[in-house]
Amino acid sequence: MEVKLALKVSDLDNVATIFANDIKDGDQVEIRDKKGNSEIVTVKGDVPYGHKIATRDIHIGEDINKYGEEIGIATKEIVKGEYVHVHNLDSKRGRGDWKEAK
Amino acid sequence: MEFMGYVRPDGKAGARNYTAIIPSVTCANDVANAICHQVQGAITYQHHQGCCQLPPDLDRVTDTLISLAMSPNVANVLIVSLGCEGTDHERMVKEIAATGKHVEIIHIQELGGVSKAIQAGTDIARRLVIEASGMQRQPVDISNVIMSIKCGASDTTSGMASNCVIGYVADKLVDLGATVIFGETTEFIGGEHLVARRGVNEDVSKKVFEIVERMETRAKSLGCDMRKGQPTPGNIEGGLSSIEEKSLGAIVKSGTKPIQGVLEYPEHITNQKGLWIKDTPGREPEILTGMAATGAQFMLFSTGRGAPQGFPSMPVIKICGNPNTYERMSEDMDLNAGLIIKGEKTIEQVGEEAFEKLLHVLSGEMTKNEAIQYFSAIDIHTLGPVI
User: Which residue of B220, B227, B230 is in closest CB contact with A101?
Assistant: First the structure.
């Protein structure tokens, strides 16, 4: 079976985006960057089309990066290959609910 | 390089030739709409503003309606006034007439009510559309193009495919001496440093940070997380986890050229060339109005989830980044950037297709939303309360 791709946009990123339908927990995907480097990882969680996985372990409170820029912080411990979305990533902006809002 | 446009008395070139039936206040909407339905070649703006608002907002609505009428896609104008509104309909007539355009006005209260106003307005509008129909397209240089750009109903394909295509087209048009305008200030949040550093001078860069702070403060004013407002539930379902991620994908569509300046929402482009920002929210009805008010002849609009809507007087070209969506909604999508995600085409290839398409649309070819007139949901972005 053809291995599905997860695209990592920048070297600074710790997530990659999967453009494939029906990726299930335990499936293997190939993380590929723009230079053509690739690595096979096992996906943790069911990942819908266009959603992200971690390209390495990410600790709680650590920044999550895509496009080489910060897109939020980890609200849970995240392991390599794990599905990353609103359940374990929090935005730092537009936070009217934060008292000491940035 | 040229397109076939309608040259207006102020020298601007239109891609369309509409008679605009403009309600000066929301209470005149039904009369304007009835007139519009009766005559061929007319459009109307069914907005919800113009009365019981604070003076800065009333000025903003008046200015925006004037700017809409000044669009080169508008041949002539009928203003439909109720008679007691807060907007300044006299100033509308004066400033539109100053551009050399034929403008008329009717007042519903003065004419003795709705049915009489519809009758009087229909007779005037009939004369206006006949007058417009005699105008001819002529070749105009590509440097007369004012392109507006936007992404809506985005997902993660937007920032990696369709917005990249728009960025390619934006760069190309700027190199050809044309004007490109982008907005959606909310979708600079988290990427504003990347936008600001492209300002032609420090003032422009500072202004970028200012408008983002203004928008974010507004978003935070109700004391909640803005998520679900921005990104929307559809964005989140499409894989966008935060406003930062959405913004970083959204700003890609502005290309790589220097940013010349920042326009306020009601402002109209005069002779400015190159890449400009207009301070707008991201929601379609308000940003499309703001961009048409700029004087843009058309909009290149990127979508991942499938946003079908257009605008009455501004053709909107839809470019879809998500191959699954394109397959489902190809009837509403003008261009397919999903092939980039599938690895079947490059950004440059789809960019050239988009460029070819916009030349056709500028010269008269209808976009898909235009052909089925899917464009009535519009509004003017105001800042203060309705009182």
Answer: B220
Domains recognised in chain A with CATH numbers: 4-90 (2.30.130.110)
Q: Which of A49, A69, A97 sits opposite B223 (nearest CB)?
A: A97
Chain B residue numbers touching A96 (CB-CB < 8 A): 219-226
Mean pLDDT over each residue of chain B, to the nearest integer: 97
Residues within 8 A of B (CB atoms), A 50-79 only: 50-52, 66-67, 69-72
**A-B contacts at Cβ under 8 angstroms:** 102
Q: Where are the domains of chain B?
A: 18-134, 142-371
Between CA B99 and CA B310, with CA B31 as vertex, the angle to 5 degrees is 65
CA of B384, closest CA in chain A: separation in Å? 19
Report pLDDT digits (tens) over B339-358. 999 999 999 999 999 999 99
Tell me if the bond preceding B231 is cis, omega within 30° of 0.
yes
Residue B294's identity, in one-letter code, is T
| ipTM of model | 0.95
Interface contact A9-B160, CB threshold 8 A: yes
CATH code, residues B18-134: 3.40.50
Interface list for chain B against chain A, based on CB atoms closer than 8 Å: 155-157, 159-160, 189-191, 194, 216, 219-227, 229-230, 236-239, 241-245, 248-249, 304, 322, 324, 341
Burial class (CB in 10 A: 0-12, 13-18, 19+), A96: middle
Q: Which region among A91-95, B65-69, B77-81, B334-338 has the lowest average model confidence (pLDDT)? A: A91-95
> Percent of chain B at pLDDT above 70?
100
Q: What does the pLDDT look like over A24-66, one tens digit per residue?
A: 999 999 999 988 899 999 999 999 999 999 999 999 999 999 9
Query: Is B241 in contact with A72 (Cβ distance < 8 A)?
Result: yes
**Torsion of the alpha carbons at B330, B331, B337 and B342, rounded to the nearest 10:** 10
Instruction: Quote the tokens at residue B213.
Output: 């702070």
- Whole-number Å distance between alpha carbons of B35 and B44: 9
